Amino acid sequence: MIKRLLKSVGEYKRDSILSPIFVTLEVVMEVVIPILMAVLIDNGINKGNMNTIYKMGIILIAFALISLLFGALSGKFAASASAGYAKNLRRDMYYNVQNFSFANIDKFSTSSIVTRLTTDVANVQNAYQMIIRIAVRCPTMLIFALCMAFGVNARLSLIFLAVIPILAVGLILIATKAHPIFVRVFQTYDKLNNVVQENLRGIRVVKSYVREDYEKQKFGKISGEIFRDFSLAEKILAFNSPLMQFSMYATILFISWIGAKLIVGSSMTTGQLMSMISYASQILMSLMMLSMVFVMIIISRASAERIVEILEEESDLHNPEKPIHQVKDGSIVFENVNFSYAKDINKLCLKDIDIQIRSGETIGIIGGTGSAKTSLVQMIPRLYDATTGRILVGGIDVRQYDIESLRNEVAMVLQKNVLFSGTIKENLRWGKADATDEEIIKVCKLAQADDFIQSFPDKYDTYIEQGGSNVSGGQKQRLCIARALLKKPKILILDDSTSAVDTKTDSLIRRAFREEIPETTKIIIAQRISSIEDADKIIIMENGKICGFGSPEELLKTNHIYQEVYYSQKRGGEEDETK
Asked: Tens digits of per-residue pLDDT, 127-174?
């Protein structure tokens, strides 16, 4: 885990090395100061030697200023290294998430990934800064101060060796109790983020159903769980402070008591006792600060484990060794395809799929909710791989293509239409980054979007709010269709993406498809028969199986599901016209 995390240090290695170097120099200055003070007291103050007092005073001030400079430099480099490290961690995680397949994202959930990119990275950043500065300073100070203390009085210094094991046992007990709680806390954070995201995404539904109180209760419940777990963990960690304080003051009392006896017996000078007390403070302060680092590491360890899970996760979709970059045409073949999201042959979502689609054909797909219509089309651009069997595009297995090249030739307008913050032009250029204004206007006319865009004050420079909240559902669908058309794909997949437009607009869009992109294979998932009645062939899906495949005329004669849907919708339409 540590090796993987350190890879993200990158260009901040220099700062990460300089910080502990300056910390060490700072410590050297600090441990020399008590010895100089002892000389000042014994040879200057006690003997009334003003020359020694002035000389040692100037030296002490110089050492203090140098120590301050080294401390400032170590802090500067530590801040730069930790902030840069956090930046690289976020970047590496985010870049790896971009390579995830849908299955990988489903494994972690969106809210969990967001928590890891924010809260967990912040925890690791704080821990890293403490490790390269305080975690270096404390052991260095401890060792140097112990050596100096033994140099002053070896017998009196044995007190320190008695205290250290007591502290070590206490800290280990605290760590083993607190770490599992922090693991649970960060998992609960994922749930909290999920609740907030759901609420904000569906705020219109929440308000229209007057469910604000329910949402508050749901949020309060999860927030309460975090409070209780954090409180429990902090109570355990709180034992660290009294343990340190007890050890520190007990040590100073023992040193003062025994040192006073040694001074009376002329075995020790007053200056030496003062230096021993200073070293005791340095040693025990180092231990106290080390315990703070220890606490931070306990908290960040759970975060680090969660970050490494993202960094080490590999997409289950890979390019072959020698990928094919050219897609010949838009023909599609499913050969004995079975598919399971769980990759379990006993939990199949799609079963025994065998179909052939010629390039340029228009294929309609209908079926009840949960009949796996979307699952079927998602395998064409390799958003998921077939569990068994294979899918051929342009006569070649999709797994032999370069993934990017394949997806560039397959445009999908998903069930959930997504627009991003930015102008209409910027959103449309997702389809083609270098598209001219003329190309953009052309595809918008094909998608029947140009009319409503022209009605906006800023036209194609109109700013789209996050998620497209300032355009209607039908407008959003038409913009997404235009964006897909801009790719000039060999295969165009519309997943129920005209459901929010009226039948006249739907008809105009389909006519534009027939006239303007006749060579593109068009697959249209729809709930309305009118949206696919002029398709070359229609696929009927039921319970993950194809229970009908043929022209609309053939299915109307032979397939009872198509007949039932066709006549029920036609009858409903006639009744509406009569009314």
From this structure: 888 888 887 877 787 777 777 777 777 777 777 777 777 777 877 787
Contact 401, 393 (CB under 8 A): yes
Select from 55, 541, 40, 51 the least CA-distant residue to 271: 40
Q: How far apart are CA 301 and CA 89, in angstroms?
A: 15
> Are the C-beta atoms of residues 482 and 446 closer than 8 Å to each other?
yes
Q: Which tokens in the block code for residue 134? A: 């305080």
The interaxial angle of helices 154-201 and 270-312, nearest 10 deg, is: 30
> What single-letter amino acid sits at 208?
S
Q: Are 97 and 311 in contact (CB under 8 A)?
A: no
C-alpha 143/C-alpha 244 separation (Å) is: 18
Q: By CB neighbour count within 10 A (0-12 exposed, 13-18 middle, 19+ buried), where does 391 fall?
A: buried
Phi and psi at residue 549, to the nearest 5°: -150, 115
Buried b (16+ CB within 10 A) or exposed e, 90-112: bebbeebbeebbebbeeebeebb
Strand partners, 410: 491
Q: In angstroms, how far apart are the furthest CA atoms of the chain?
A: 119
Distance, first Cα to last Cα, the chain? 69
Sorting pLDDT into bands at 50, 70 and 90, what band is 572?
Answer: low
DSSP for residue 366 = E
409: nearest Cα among 337, 328, 465: 328
Q: Determine the length of the chain.
A: 579
The H or E element that residue 470 is part of is none
In terms of DSSP bridges, do strands 545-550 and 537-542 run parallel, antiparallel, or are they unpaired?
antiparallel
Rg (CA), the chain: 35
The amino acid at 460: Y
Strand pairing category for 388-393 and 396-397: antiparallel
- Is the Cβ–Cβ distance between 496 and 525 less than 8 Å? yes
Give the long-range contacts of residues 170-177, CB within 8 A, separation 24 or more: 170/239, 170/240, 170/243, 171/240, 171/243, 171/291, 171/294, 174/236, 174/237, 174/239, 174/240, 174/294, 174/295, 174/298, 175/294, 175/298, 177/236
Q: What is the pLDDT of residues 180-202, one digit of tens each?
A: 887 788 778 778 877 887 777 67
User: DSSP secondary structure string, 371-407?
Assistant: SSHHHHHHTTTTSS--SEEEEEETTEEGGGB-HHHHH
pTM as predicted:
0.67
Which tokens in the block code for residue 575? Answer: 């009744």
Closest CA to 529 of 408, 286, 367, 416: 367
